[in-house]
Design a protein that fits this description.
Elements: H1 8-41, H2 47-56, H3 64-78, H4 85-98, H5 107-118, H6 120-135
Helix pairs in contact: 1-3, 1-4, 1-6, 3-4, 5-6
Length: 136
């Protein structure tokens, strides 16, 4: 049977759903990493200190590509030229490849795997994102 490719409108709705899920996941990962950091290094005293750590400390470095990717999606939607079907497909695929937990994989994949193991909330968000990727 011939499968009709999704329309641009459907892909944009899907990309927006991926973005929302990524934002929620990113916040949960930041909170989880903050907690783990504080267990090792002591309490982070302010939001400003946390912001500096997220930007500069190696502990949080694995989260930076996720932050940058969310900005990339936002920039695509804010651009003068509308998002094309090809762009939407590429962004969804990038999101999928960015978030692959693997206990034996690259350091960022290992850290994501560890976050899923220690935080059931993150595990649920990962499952939700996996379902979104499977739909697309």
């Amino acid at each position: 049977m011939f499968e009709v490719p999704p329309s641009l409108d459907v892909r944009l709705i899907h990309l927006k759903a991926v973005r929302v899920s990524l934002l929620r996941l990113h916040k949960a990962l930041l909170d989880s990493e903050r907690e783990a950091y504080e267990q090792t290094h002591g309490q982070i005293r302010s939001q400003g200190e946390l912001f500096q750590l997220v930007l500069e400390d190696k502990w949080f470095s694995w989260l930076r590509p996720i932050s940058q990717f969310i900005v990339q999606i936002d920039e695509a939607f804010a651009a003068k030229e509308p998002v094309t079907l090809n762009q939407a497909n590429q962004l969804i695929e990038q999101a999928h490849s960015l978030l692959k937990p693997d206990a034996e994989g690259a350091p960022s994949q290992q850290r994501y795997y560890q976050a899923i193991q220690r935080d059931p909330n993150i595990a649920l968000m990962n499952a939700d994102l996996s379902m979104l990727f499977a739909e697309g």
